[in-house]
Amino acid sequence: MRARVTWLVELRRLVLLVLLALALGWPLGYPFQVLSGLLLLLLLRWLVQLKRLRAWLDSPDVEPPEARGIWGDFYDRLYSLRRESREQQTLLQSRLDYLQDSLSSMQDAAVMVSASGAIEWCNSAAQKLLGLRFPKDRGQALLNLVRLPEFHRYFLAEDYSLPLQVRLGSEREQYLQFSISRFGNNDRLVFARDVTREARLENMRRDFVGNVSHELRTPLTVIKGYLETLLGQPEQVPERLQRPLGQMAQQAERMEALLRDLLWLTRIESVQPRERRESVNVGQLLRELQSELATSHPQRRVEFRVETEASVPGDLRELHSAISNLVLNAIKYSPDDSCVTVTWAEEPDGLRLSVQDQGVGIEASHIPRLTERFYRVDDSRSSRTGGTGLGLAIVKHVAANHQAQLQIESRPGKGSTFSLWFPRG
Ligand code: ADP
Known about the structure:
binds adenosine-5'-diphosphate
C-alpha cells in the first residue's frame, strides 16, 4: 500500500515538473527545451542516487543513505530484505554448526564426500580411525587416503544396502565397519565404526561352537560304535533293551548330523569370500544331485529342469550343500506321492534356482524366522523328520556368501517354493 502511495506521489511530481516546465518555457517561446533541461536534471539526480545505491550495496554493514520519495522507499525495502536474509543466514549457520557439532561429538567416524569423491568435511573420530587430517585434507580424494582394497570396491560398487566389515592389516587386530548413505546431489556420508570388540566376540563364539562340535565327535563315535555292535548281535541283548537301544542309536545319529551341520556352518562363516572364487556350473551340480537322490530317495519323484547352462562364481561344496538342503526339505515336508521340482533358469532379474514342493506349506508368520538357527515351525514334525534345525541357516549363509537372495513363498496346505536369486555375472 505504502509503495503504491509513493509511486503515485512520484508520478504526481513528474507531472507537476512537466507542467512547470511548459508553464515556464511557453512564455519564453522554448517550452520543449526547458522541459528537456528539467528532465535532464531529473535524470542526473537519479544517476547520483544509483551511484549512492551501488556504494551502499558494496558496504554491507552501514545503514542505507537518507533519501525521500521513491528512493527512500527503495532503500527501506532493500534494507529490510538484507536484514531478513542475514537473519536467515545466521539461523542456517547455527543449524549447520549444531549438526556438525553433533557429528563431531560422535564416537564413529563421519566423512562427507562430494559426488566426485573429494572430502568435504570430517569429524575428529575420522581423523583418529581413518588417519584423515582436517581441514588439511579437504578436497583430497577419499580413496587416495583410505587405502583399503575392500573399501575401494565397496565405495565404487555403489551398493550400500549392507555395511562392510574390514580387518585392518596392522599388528594389532582391529576391525572397522563402514556404512555409506547418499544425500544431496550424489554426495555421500561415510561412517566408520570400530567393531573390534564385537568381531572378537563373534570369532570367539564361532571358535567355541566349532571346537565343542569337534570335541563331541570322538565320544559320539565311541557311543555309536558300541550301539551298532550291540544292535548287530540281537541274540546277546535282552529283549526289553532292544527298543531303548534302537532309540539311542537313532538319537546318536541325529546328534552326529547336528554336529556335522554345526561344524559346516562354522566353516562357511569363517572362510573369506575371496577364497571361494571358482566358477560353478549349476546345471552340472543339479545333474549330480539328481543321481545322488536316485540312490538315496528312489521312491520320490524329483523333476530337474535345467533351462540355462549359466555358471555362478563361488564354492561348489557350499552351493551343493545349500541346494541339497532345500531339496531334502522339500522331500521331508511333502507327501511321498507328490512331486518336487528343481529349476535353474535365467530371468530378467537374475539367475534363479528354485525348489518347489506340493507339501504342508508354512504359515506366513513363520517365514521371516525360518533361517534362524534351530527355528522350527512344528517341533514334533521336525524331530520326526530328523532335521537338525540348521538347514535353512546354512542356506542363508551360503546365499550371503554368493551375493544371492533367498526368497520363500508358501501357502499352507498347498506347498512352498524356496528360490535363490543370483546376480547375473
Ligand atoms: P529342519 O532341519 O528342522 O528341517 P531347516 O532349517 O531346514 O530345519 O528348516 C527350518 C524349518 O522350516 C523346518 O523345521 C520346517 O518347519 C520349515 N521348512 C523348511 N523347508 C520347508 C518346506 N519345504 N516345507 C515346509 N516347511 C519347511
